[in-house]
């Protein structure tokens, strides 16, 4: 992959020199995974950092036979870097929602990459702060009514990974159970809220294309505001 394309997909690294990025990309490997395939197993955290070139994935918390969706990731995001830095065991895995393509960088090569360019340390700190802020926002979200929680989850995904067009913002059509996990609302209540949003004309779902379109962005943004 060319460095300019990589920087466009992953702006966090646009401060890295072309030489440093060329070295990193020379150590990276592109892999394709079909929908439903585990991209990262729970016992493999800390081995590499994964950059999402296309597709949608979910991070799941595993407990016995149960799995709870903790996060949904899309094109332009990456994961695995925290496990490299803290080396703590994980009870999570990452599974492909759709067919995905990722670029993986071995753990030691990624650490060397960070040390090659001092500015990258600052960028990584910024990333950690942003992710901590998201965690705090999710905690605050638990105090909101179900409709606000669900709207906040959908708008968060739309603002981060959505494909904006004249009709609205398109994201992957998440299953009800995954929306319920992310919003911490029961599946039954999640289904009721989703039906109401569709009846209002704020959402349009195309099952064949696996696309959820937010067609009334203004109203959804207003609903998603914490009160």
From TrEMBL:
The keyword Repressor does not apply. One of its GO terms (molecular function) is DNA-binding transcription factor activity. PANTHER family: CRP FAMILY TRANSCRIPTIONAL REGULATORY PROTEIN, DNA-BINDING TRANSCRIPTIONAL DUAL REGULATOR CRP. Residues 12-131 form the Cyclic nucleotide-binding domain. It comes from Pseudanabaena cinerea FACHB-1277. This is Crp/Fnr family transcriptional regulator. InterPro entries: cNMP-bd_dom (IPR000595), cNMP-bd_dom_sf (IPR018490), Env_Response_Regulators (IPR050397), HTH_CRP (IPR012318), RmlC-like_jellyroll (IPR014710), WH-like_DNA-bd_sf (IPR036388), WH_DNA-bd_sf (IPR036390). GO terms for cellular component: cytosol. Residues 144-218 form the HTH crp-type domain. Coiled coil: none annotated. Keywords: DNA-binding, Transcription, Transcription regulation.
């Amino acid at each position: 992959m060319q460095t300019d394309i990589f920087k466009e997909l992953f702006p966090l690294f646009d401060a890295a020199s072309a030489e440093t990025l060329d070295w990193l990309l020379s150590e990276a490997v592109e892999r394709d995974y079909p929908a439903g395939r585990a991209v990262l197993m729970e016992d493999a955290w800390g081995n590499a950092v994964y950059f999402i070139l296309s597709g949608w994935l979910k991070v799941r918390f595993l407990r016995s036979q149960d799995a709870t969706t903790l996060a949904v990731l899309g094109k332009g995001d990456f994961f695995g870097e925290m496990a490299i830095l803290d080396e703590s065991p994980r009870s999570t895995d990452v599974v492909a929602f759709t067919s995905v393509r990722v670029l993986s960088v071995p753990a030691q090569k990624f650490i060397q990459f960070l040390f090659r360019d001092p500015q990258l340390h600052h960028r990584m700190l910024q990333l950690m702060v942003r992710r901590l802020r998201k965690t705090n926002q999710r905690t605050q979200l638990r105090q909101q009514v179900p409709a606000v929680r669900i709207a906040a989850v959908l708008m968060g995904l739309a603002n981060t990974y959505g494909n904006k067009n004249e009709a609205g913002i398109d994201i992957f059509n998440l299953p009800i159970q995954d929306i319920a996990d992310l919003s911490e609302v029961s599946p039954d209540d999640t289904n009721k809220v989703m039906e109401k949003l569709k009846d209002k004309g704020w959402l349009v779902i195309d099952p064949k294309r696996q696309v959820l379109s937010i067609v009334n962005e203004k109203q959804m943004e207003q609903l998603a505001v914490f009160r």
